[in-house]
Design goal:
The complex is a heterodimer of chains A (378) and B (226).
Chain A (H helix, E strand, L loop, with lengths): L1 H18 L3 H36 L5 E7 L2 E3 L1 E2 L1 H7 L4 E14 L4 E7 L9 E4 L1 H7 L6 E5 L5 E9 L5 H4 L2 E3 L2 H8 L5 E2 L1 E6 L5 H11 L3 E5 H39 L3 H12 L4 H32 L7 H5 L16 H27 L10
Helix pairs in contact in A: 1-10, 2-8, 2-10, 2-12, 8-12, 10-12
Chain B lengths: L1 E10 L7 E11 L4 E5 L6 H8 L7 E6 L2 E2 L5 H11 E4 L11 H6 L9 H14 L15 H13 L5 E5 L7 H16 L3 E5 L3 H4 L6 E6 L2 E6 L1
Parallel strand pairs in B: 3-8, 3-9, 6-7, 7-8
Antiparallel strand pairs in B: 1-2, 1-4, 4-5, 9-10
Classes of the chains: A alpha+beta (378), B alpha/beta (226).
Chain lengths: 378, 226
Amino acid sequence: MTDWVEKQRNILDFTLSSLRRRKGRHLGMLAVYAAIVFLLASVMLFSHAIKREAAIVLADAPEIVVQRMVAGRHDLIPGAYADRLTGIRGVAAVTPRLWGYYYDAALAANYTILVPTDQAVPAGSVVIGGGVARARGAGVGDTLSFRGYGGEQFFFTVAEVLPHASELVAADLFLIAETEYRAMLGIDDGAYTDIAVSVRNPREVVTVANKIIAALPDTRVILREEILRTYDALFDWREGLMLVLLTGAVLAFAIFAGDKASGLSAEERREIGLLKAVGWETTDVIAMKVWEGAAVSLAAFLAGYLLAYLHVFHFSGALFEPVLKGWAVLYPEFRPAAFVDVFQVLTLFFFTVFPYTVATIVPIWRAAIIDPDAIMRS
Amino acid sequence: MIVLDGVRKAFNQGKPNEFWAIRGIDLEIELGRVTVLQGPSGSGKTTLLTLIGCLARPTAGRVRLGGRDISGLPERFLTEIRRNSFGFVFQQFHLIKGVSVLDNVVLPGLPTGRRRRELTDRAHALLSRLTLADKAASNAEWLSGGEAQRVAIARALINEPEVVIADEPTANLDSSLTEAFLAIVAALKAEGRTVLMTSHDPLIYRAEMVDRVLSMRDGRLVSQAP
């Protein structure tokens, strides 16, 4: 056993010292390999981070949202429904909400207009998200004007720009007072967009939801868990789509690696013949080539993963933002919290190192079975 | 004793370009002596060396080393015998470019499982003996012809083989370097090693320390002296 370990150490030492000899060839392979790992790791890290971010943000969302339906479409809900919801056993709090969308023709962008329930915005003031601030070039103290539903102009002074940390969900937010919301969008008093319901016992959310549907048959309930599942499915789908597209790149890389491994130069073949002649077994030559592949794989994997980590967590995944975040005019600008999942690393390692190994093993074996007397005849 | 019994070797057997390089050789080579194979190109000298050195198997006949028939052994066992019993000095020396002289010398010892330190100590000792101590860290391609040959000899001796096989070792060397090579061969003989060489060079096959010269032609032994 000790002899075997020493032998592998000796072969590894020699492999590493020989790797330096064909720098151009190995660096070329390393660069392509690292680029593949970088692409795959970026997609995986980004979509994982965005799902995690969404879950953190939604942790504060209400457990149930009740919306009124008319002819299969979401309609305004009367405030009186809130009183009926309060009476349902298990309901802890009921909060009618006012929100909607505003299309800004000048920027061709949609804002989400919201009357905050946890803070009062003074009349004539507005609190805006980072995306709106950037699109409008507005800061605290600036005045923004908007057209109401009847054509009249409304003027708001920016009281606050929402903090960067909340940007993933708040980039397009536009928070105003209730009176101005109703006046600008033409919503009658006593009508609300929907009603948020919190439940005393989280395990009874489904039961309470069923009671709501029974009590208010013209409504639909949206559970927080469903939203989370939807987000997961959406980002899983986008990640899957990207990974399927990148499969082509992985295959192309495997063909490239196989081609490189099988295209041994005359000098390399002579070297392998020499090693065989001076007492290396076929398995020793294979071991040398496997160590060589392992060194290239490991270096490429580490470099690619490190670059992907920097790309996603320090440069906000700039390359894949449009695909993975979805389409928008007001893209949120956010830096996801750094997070590395061991299982994800292992999966990525398998999907990059395995194709490389499979693609190179046959050419390696063919090179290793060169007859030992070939060197005497060269 | 190395014994060859009715040894024949064909290349591309059964194909239109079949060629018999060795056509029936019976030979006994005593250990501890210097033997030279001479003959024109294509006479089968190098092929005979590959058969004796376990680099290839005969198509027919037997090769025995120390009484053991090694001609039919599987590759793994042949490799082990080759590694432990034979050291090779090739005609072009075949040092690996881009790696140091030291790394070239330890090459045959790497798969033996010996400790790296032990191998490098032995390599340094051999390089000192061959007056190459200051070249250990140099790259192989920076050496002169004589230096490259001595490195190849050091490499052949790293596993302390019983038999040193040299194929046209002085083909690329001038007379003074050939004399220096013969001095090394004399030292190897004095240590009790068997040296088996092929050569066209009269300086080699007429040298004083050569015990036996075998002449070959068309894959057969045609004469031997003394």
